[in-house]
Amino acid sequence: MPKLRKVKNEIKCATQQIIISRTDTEGNIIYCNPIFLEINNFKSFEVIKQPHNIVRHPDMPKTIFHIIWSIIKQGLSIQAVIKNKTNDGHYYWTLVSIHAQKDRNNKVISYIAYAKQAPNSIIKVMEPLYQILCEIEQEVGIDASIQYLESYLKEENMTYSQYMKHLTKRRQFRCLCDIIKHAILK
User: Fold this and answer.
1) Residue 28: helix, strand or coil by DSSP?
2) Do 80 and 96 touch, CB atoms closer than 8 A?
3) Does 70 or 183 have the greater pLDDT score?
4) Which of 6, 19, 90, 186: CA 20 to 30 A from 140?
């Protein structure tokens, strides 16, 4: 079975494929693994030192990235569902875990993201929510979109992180050893 499948304009990754990227504290790519390059149809020299948002899909609400940045800038980890676009116009959904990397003085020096194919069941939940958030951003602005998401999460009686854990039911990677085990055992 091929590692990547294209279904119309969507790319589906094999379950054992792990997409890895590392950025500096400004969000510029300083490392990406060969799977990141293959899926996004880039050469290494085309992405290194480029903003990670070169793979941001226009269907992704800025609200989600606002939340991600607010959490990782504190040195905390976060999990999210992200729709990315490729260099050749395709798209793919990932379940991503983003972790701050710190120096000896506990200062954040970079961020590393481990991603895998998002399950269809999660995409079906997130895609309509993202559509609503994007519409609110376009019509009223990001602050209103953030307020909507906060109200939505309040109704669910969860924080964003709790909501992601609830949706993913522990599908996230907890440490590098989990990623290696997942890649080797699948």
Assistant:
1) strand
2) yes
3) 70
4) 90
